[in-house]
């Protein structure tokens, strides 16, 4: 059911063109934050307005859309954004990663490998990876221009000095195409390796901060680290209690008043496909390795 | 046993219904009409129009009703409505010297051409609850209000700053070379350093509470600017456009605005003699607190341009302009309500690992 009073995908065509131009520039300069004239969307800033604007600018009537939040299609924010596009575009939606042509995500990359032709749209709260180290945008812009990333390396080094390891677990900074340090958005660092040489187009939208950036297909994405303290991802001792997966990102769920816990896949589609057919191949991470 | 979280859509639809019930309240009480809000909650309507950047009292009143009186939410509704409206043109600059004044005060001169007009103001009310309003009465002051005579408000009332200007005691309006069209902040992202026109645009849309606190900080030692209210005026002004094919300006209607010109001391610099400088505030409708706060913050933000040391938050463009917008602030603060299971899981694992590490060391 689409609303006849609202343009396809809500935004007017001129705004979509403006956003597409920003996306093209972002694709041409992987990892570079392109400022764009972010609009006030009917959903609040900080709730995915950047991702929504990117999706609205690239979606077509034949697209099949999947929306996830925390890896799941069923969390209220994912449901709300999916309803928004169902209402304004009438496109087919799916929960299946493989069937989707366009996936909007918050905080996760799906476990199932993405393919050429798919587009992954990330919702980004803070596009500037150095913002917590240097809040002035005029300064960080210069640092990016000079590829001067000492600040970030010092931060990671201080972690090692203090804790013996790098204490960043999500939104772990990456170097894109050997040039720009980029925020992967607050995905767990577990997902970082999936960005590297991914066949899909990865687009990042930050509505409140008014920036768009991109990782084109088959682009090198390297998580920052040191020779003696290389980047590493989280591991669990447990397996998913529902599908038995041992290589997926697991959420901990508290099941009773005494704090009993179980682990389940954060990617609900991946978990359900495995429950339906246990032969589902292992996640992308292993294939890459 | 854990059940996968399903039914988000049903929950959302259910929350819509509960929200509608909460908004309506007791159905035994007559429903509030948009007209009533527009006419009787004028100052709320004015604030929503100002920060919502749409001059439309009816839509602002509708937004207030829909938002159950939450003004920041109402501003959000109005902004989202305006986001996709086409831009048909730009007006010619407002001539506020030609305002029909309902109120005009100056704190710098006892009397001045055009006179002081107190007009509608809470300033000299004694803040005692008026229980006659509770008893459905019209309020005590209603009958005693004297009708304003047309002679009170001549058609042309010169601005105080223009009077000071004749003596060259105050800076003239610095116009950038070529008078370039201002950036439209609703169409282009804010970039730093921002020109004054851009800053004023940001402040005009900025949250009243935030600007008030910022302005207040300049009075308490964080970049003091010795301010005086040169003039505050509230009234109606003609809005004119000049279509290219026409070649002259035509009025498309009147709008109510509040304008504040703050006059600030300036000790002079190597190139400028000592003189008064200015801070400017403008808001839709009757919004004096907003216009005054805006003018103080505008002046503080001119530190760079006037060669003053930038030391306090109110003088820092990035600090003020990046945090002034209630939509951005409210959205990002409240997004913490959204699920963060994944990030929290990652942190949980890290904290457990960090706590386990010292124990292992002790064992060794």
Description:
Chain A has 289 residues and is of the alpha/beta class. Chain A is 28% helix and 17% strand. Chain A has helices spanning 13-28, 49-58, 76-89, 137-145, 150-163, 192-195, 268-276, 284-288, and strands at residues 34-35, 64-69, 92-93, 102-106, 119-123, 174-176, 180-182, 201-206, 211-215, 221-223, 250-254, 261-265. In chain A, a hairpin with a 6-residue loop joins β11 (250-254) and β12 (261-265). The N and C termini of chain A lie far apart (44 Å). The model of chain A is unreliable at 282-289 (pLDDT under 50). The model of chain B is unreliable at 1-5 (pLDDT under 50). Chains A and B meet through α3, β11 and α7 of A and α1, α5, α13 and α14 of B.
Brief synopsis:
The complex is a heterodimer of chains A (289) and B (364). In chain A, 28% of the residues lie in helices and 17% in strands.
- Give the overall form of chain B: globular
- The helix-strand sequence of chain A is HEHEHEEEHHEEHEEEEEHH
Which range best describes the helical content of chain B: under 10%, 10-25%, 25-40%, 40-55%, 55-70% or over 70%? Answer: 40-55%
Question: Portion of residues in helices of chain A?
Answer: 25-40%
Keywords, separated by commas or semicolons:
heterodimer; A: about 290 residues; alpha/beta; 7-stranded mixed beta sheet; 3-stranded antiparallel beta sheet; 8 helices; 12 strands; about 30% helix; about 15% strand; disordered C terminus; B: about 375 residues; alpha+beta; 4-stranded antiparallel beta sheet; 14 helices
Q: What's the helix and strand layout?
A:
The complex is a heterodimer of chains A (289) and B (364).
Chain A: H1 13-28, E1 34-35, H2 49-58, E2 64-69, H3 76-89, E3 92-93, E4 102-106, E5 119-123, H4 137-145, H5 150-163, E6 174-176, E7 180-182, H6 192-195, E8 201-206, E9 211-215, E10 221-223, E11 250-254, E12 261-265, H7 268-276, H8 284-288
Parallel strand pairs in A: 2-3, 2-4, 4-5, 5-8
Antiparallel strand pairs in A: 1-9, 6-7, 6-10, 8-9, 11-12
Chain B: H1 8-24, H2 34-40, H3 42-52, H4 57-66, H5 71-83, E1 100-105, H6 131-134, H7 160-165, H8 196-205, H9 208-219, E2 227-241, E3 250-266, E4 275-284, H10 288-300, H11 303-306, H12 317-323, H13 326-334, H14 341-363
Antiparallel strand pairs in B: 1-2, 2-3, 3-4
Helix pairs in contact in B: 2-4, 3-4, 3-5, 4-5, 8-10, 9-10
